[in-house]
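User: I'm putting together notes for a lab meeting next week and I want to include a structural view of one of the chains we've been expressing. I don't have a solved structure, so I'd like a prediction I can at least talk through. The sequence is below, exactly as it appears in our construct file.
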Amino acid sequence: MVALTLGSGRAWAQGSPDTPTLGSSPQALIDYARQSNPGFAAARAEASAAQERVTPAGALPDPTFEVELMDATNTMSGRSASLLPGQVGETRYRITQPLPGWGKRELAVKAAEAQATQADAMRDTAWAELAAKIETLWLRYYAADRELVLNREGLTLLKSLEELSLTRYELGLLPQQAVLRMQREITAQRLALVEVEQRRKGLAAGLNGLLGRAHDAPLAAPADPVPLPEQLEAGALFEAAASANPEVNAATYGIDVARAERERTYQERLPDFAVGVRNNRPDEGKSSWDVMFEVMIPLQQSSRRAKEREAEHRLMAAEARREDAKARASGELGIAWSMYAQGRETLRLLEHTLLPQAQATRDASQAALSSGKVDFDSVIEAERQLIDIRTQRLKTELDTRLALTEIKKLTGDLK
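Assistant: Thanks for the context. Below is the predicted structure for the 415-residue chain, given as structure tokens.
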């Protein structure tokens, strides 16, 4: 029955030349979302904006230009007041260039570069979350599609049993209660079919939402996913979670940002400067030039010490966030790895033991019914058990694949 299920899935995946191909595999959806998802577009733009902040971080401040009108009322010359240069007692033109203290521009560039790197890591974290959501929804979409096939096959089998029950009832070989139970089973199967059909439509709408498409945009039927790995090496996974986990990387770069900001805060102990030139043009007399030099006096020491303590606490917080990210990644990976191992073992038992047993029981009960050795209720029960076991196998496969997706997200394997 496993081969029949997969074969039916492939038949569904095939279609006319006009059938959409987007949706047949999760990777195609992920590649599409990289350019179309609005949320990731925002994260990408934020990272680009952070990169653009590096260049101006090390630039000199813009100079200032001043015009000073001395004796604008013209009291000394006896003329009427004026606000025009050259028509007052003296006109002064001054250009001033602020100069940050030693090393401050370099530290500003270093901090901006650290922030840009952290923004890139946060973009990668957002992408890993989005890719995991897409793959998770696609797997549920795949499972709903295959469950739809199973339910239709089960409904077909139950209808064939209904025809047999009606024939035997007309011959007086079966009580009416058996026919009514058979019809109840068919109704229950139809209800399950309606639920799965609506669930499949809802999952397709969810996928379209993540792709930035209309909710009713067509999606191809899902193809068979790649086979599950037989086993996963726990040691390598936990090492990857500690070094390649997107959230851990973002938290690590957050430490670099906090360190750079701390260095900038301590550098504020040094004064800033400014240089300038001034041209003096009296109404009567020769022009002259002045050269100016300014220095900031760092008197507000209590304020600076408070900012330095703040920077130290921010660094401690960044280090704690990294340790928290590592601990959470390790714990979540342990849960996902355990669920995957359990799912692989359960699938093995279902495929190689329970499913063949249920098929044999169903076949034996149908053969025994022909010879009158069992009642019709036994045949119905055997058919129902086979349908339930096939559904259980599909749900177990889904849970196992979801655990694998979580493992890939935690180890930075989703690209």
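A couple of points you could mention at the meeting. The domain at 2-59+109-269+301-410 is CATH 1.20.1600.10 (Outer membrane efflux proteins (OEP)). The first strand starts at residue 64 and ends at 70.

User: Perfect, that's what I needed.
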